[in-house]
Backbone:
DNA sequence: CTGAAAGCGCTTACAG
DNA sequence: CTGAAAGCGCTTACAG
């Protein structure tokens, strides 16, 4: 058996009540001398608090559960950094649960694992909950916040980038660089895909503002993956577009590599701007110009809001990082 | 208040004991009819088990805590996949805790967060524990296993690649391709760095076997990062080596990009083989030839061993994946 | 097959 | 400043 406050009580001669009070630092309820004796004994005995007991009586905890999808996106690390930072500053703890990749069962397991214990709250990082699971989450009384994903339903709290602006600004940027035939590649615009549709609308708007007529084959949908980028590049015949907005860094890299394979030079023959701006952009050559999202801040702010119990939605900033993959036409 | 087994007992007319038995599926202790009524009531009431209570009485749980360092390495995802797979197959749950990047306090917080609750066991993914923290871990009665990191101390259980072999085979491979001046870049060989030293020894051994005299400046140490690769490439003057073993994929990419910058063509002027073999190798051009580690299997096996309480160490397989960054000399 | 009761390790009014 | 006692929601011998 491990050592409990009862053992400390026995050793010091105080009651468990007093031991509990000093160990959980209920200041003002004990004297310095008492505290010292108890802390000493705790250290000597190698005491470790049993949080299961604490949570049981407190009906809450200082643990934030982060549920995250395990896609090959690589920006979740930055979001988690932001979360950890804020949590660390405020003495909260964080546990992370993988919800699989568009896997309803995995999602449900993650959610259940989280909900089965007292929790400060839940942060959902780019996981698009299935209706049943959303229901499950709502029915629990636990506060939650979505990060890096937005909804039409404004009753759902989220922190994300403004995807309409992302599509708009990426396109505008290419237009300013003299492009008129601009592709949009690798994103999902099925009816339920809010992010993809917003980006698409932003793209259309930018085109329209400059009097450019959208051509159907400029849009190459996909699932934000490297392979989607390769497929999109194949779909664009040589010369059909002079620039492409890639739905993610991976899509951008897929385009880059496939372009090289079919003998197209970037940015000489084709310009590319990718969305996300993770460190992958600087690993490849030419380095990818990107619409960079502030993932760290998303995590930090999401945690801040969750902790403070605020229920407003917010957008974090986006920024154009010019690197080497776009040329002036 | 949320609904408890007491509520279900009241609603069905059974005792909490019976409710507990059917809900935790103590087969043989109840009739089908009873079970149905209770499950029905549980569903109607929206019952969710309070694991804090269960863990308190059981003094254990089916939760595996994974402690992982937050370096910019990108292979932990695969390890986690392997862990989740095995955990899923056996009905275990997994929570992940970030231990920072060589951050003693962050490590300690992660460890404490884990140890504060009943646990099936702990998996440490490429985290090199500070002595104090290792002590803390050992003093808890919880089983633990290291993944992707090995020790001289064989009392510590781990699953990793054979780093001596990694260094040996990478070097051997380059020798077979006709190289005699072979660099080793980006790894840490300070006395306490077990991995780096093993790889270095394997490298030396391969050199020696082919009667090649090691030159001090062939070794460029570092911290496995992209920047270490860049620095190493700068250190190798043009023509000093004809091939390089990169300590990680990121080091390899740093070499690739810096080589391009100073006008060296890979593999024409310089061959590179990187260690790890993550998907980054296929994202860059030329694609990196790599000594590929089986990270997924490490996670899977580590979890298997942890669950079964076995305490043997094991190596997972390594494999040479030929891509485009090595040429026959 | 089922129930009454004790207990897991902690916290917190309540009374001093 | 300190202690006795009740209670958090579960599980499990023990007795039927």
Residues:
């Amino acid at each position: 058996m491990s050592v409990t406050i009862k053992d400390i009580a026995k050793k010091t001669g105080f009651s468990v009540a007093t031991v509990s009070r000093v160990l959980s630092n209920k200041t003002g309820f004990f004297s310095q001398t008492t505290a010292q004796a108890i802390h000493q004994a705790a250290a000597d005995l190698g005491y470790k608090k049993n949080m299961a007991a604490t949570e049981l009586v407190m009906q809450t905890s200082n643990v934030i559960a982060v549920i995250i999808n395990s896609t090959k996106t690589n920006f979740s690390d930055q979001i988690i950094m932001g979360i950890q930072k804020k949590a660390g500053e405020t003495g909260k703890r964080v546990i992370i649960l993988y919800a699989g990749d568009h896997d309803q069962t995995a999602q449900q397991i993650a959610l259940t694992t989280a909900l089965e214990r007292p929790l400060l709250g839940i942060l959902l990082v780019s996981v698009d909950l299935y209706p049943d699971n959303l229901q499950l989450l709502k029915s629990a009384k636990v506060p939650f916040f979505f990060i890096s994903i937005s909804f039409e339903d404004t009753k759902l709290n989220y922190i994300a980038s403004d995807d309409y602006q992302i599509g708009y600004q990426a396109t505008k940027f290419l237009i300013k660089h003299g492009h008129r035939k601009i592709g949009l590649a690798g994103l999902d615009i099925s009816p339920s895909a809010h992010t993809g549709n917003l980006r698409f609308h932003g793209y259309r708007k930018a085109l329209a503002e400059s009097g450019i007529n959208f051509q159907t084959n400029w849009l190459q949908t996909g699932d934000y993956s490297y392979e989607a980028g390769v497929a999109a590049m194949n779909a664009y015949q040589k010369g059909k577009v002079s620039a492409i907005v890639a739905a993610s860094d991976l899509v951008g890299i897929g385009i880059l590599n496939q372009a090289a394979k079919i003998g197209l030079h970037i940015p000489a023959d084709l310009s590319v701007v990718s969305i996300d701006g993770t460190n992958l952009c600087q690993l490849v050559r030419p380095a990818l110009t990107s619409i960079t999202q502030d993932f760290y801040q998303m995590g930090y702010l999401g945690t801040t809001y969750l902790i403070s119990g605020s229920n407003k939605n917010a957008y974090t900033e986006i920024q154009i990082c010019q690197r080497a993959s776009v040329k002036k036409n």
Remarks:
- DSSP finds 13 helices and twelve strands in chain A.
